Amino acid sequence: MTERTYWATHGGHPPQTDLLTDRAMFREAYAVIPRGTQRDIVTSYLPFWEDTRLWVLARPMTGFAETFSQYLVEVAPGGGSEKPEDDPSAEAVLFVMEGSLEVTLGDEPGDGDTHVLAPGGYAFIAPGETWTAHNRGSEDTRFMWIRKRYQRVAGVPKPEPFVTNEQDIEPTPMPGTEGRWATTRFVDQKDLRHDMHVTIVTFLPGGIIPFAETHVMEHGLYVLEGQAVYRLNEDWVEVQEGDFMWLRAFCPQACYDGGPKPFRYLLYKDVNRHAPLSLGGHAGR
User: Fold this and answer.
1) Position with higher pLDDT, 63 vs 20
2) Which EC class heads this enzyme's classification (predicted)?
């Protein structure tokens, strides 16, 4: 794989003349990981993945966000995996941002339904699902991979895998916003088989979250387009395309899109389950 830096403009390794001052920060209630930190020197690699590297943006941490991990993955032409996941309890969402990703879902290797995900492509991988992922194209593929340990509930069937594209889903506007704030929902909110939602939130220029949201859901927010000022706990932080925000439960949050482009981000949150009554534990573990 060619050495490169995702989103960065200064090459794979920062020069010795760079200033240390940056927007990166880790606080008690949130973290901001700017796009400029996603450099060659902080990549990770996984077993059974060929010509693939990734940036780990979030992982479960005691005392912080504990429900999910989130990777920014880059697969070179011809790369991919016949065995992408080694945890049978893990569910996942894949969201393609650049290039194309061939995903096969099926009970046995070599025997399943094959889908080619273009930019905007979205795949939900059910826990225990056999799947493969490959870049059959001529350009690098970049996608978001969100993983969560599925919380099983007796009497509630596990969700089925599916593949779609954001272009095929009509965004749902928030009431009273005249469409300036809308959410693209890939799963019915009332479908209790699902214990996580991954959606796309869009603000048109001038759109705002007009109050400080405070709630039990943990968040991973990856900025897909535009720039905005985001309220995180007591701070206002400027964010832009390629940045990642990581929020623990109950972190106050709000947003203002000053334009000139729409501000869009991919949002993870945990939903539809009892709060665990043991520290660091989740139902179904």
Assistant:
1) 63
2) hydrolase
Q: Is 51 left (phi over 0), alpha (psi -120 to 50) or beta?
A: left
Pair 143, 97: CB distance under 8 Å: yes
Token representation of residue 129: 């699902």
Instruction: Using pLDDT thresholds of 50, 70 and 90, give the confidence band for residue 278.
Output: confident
Structural domain of 84: 25-270
Number of domains in the chain: 1
281 within a domain of the structure (yes/no): no
Residue whose entry in the numeric block shows the structure tokens 């493969």: 132
62 assigned to some structural domain: yes
In a domain, 132, yes or no: yes
Look at residue 13 and tell me if it is in a domain: no
Burial of residue 1 (CB within 10 Å: 0-12, 13-18, 19+) is middle
Return the pLDDT at 282. 55
CA 275 to chain centre: 22
Please state the length of the chain.
Answer: 285
Task: Please give the distance of CA 251 from its chain centroid, rounded to a whole number.
Answer: 18
pTM of the model: 0.92
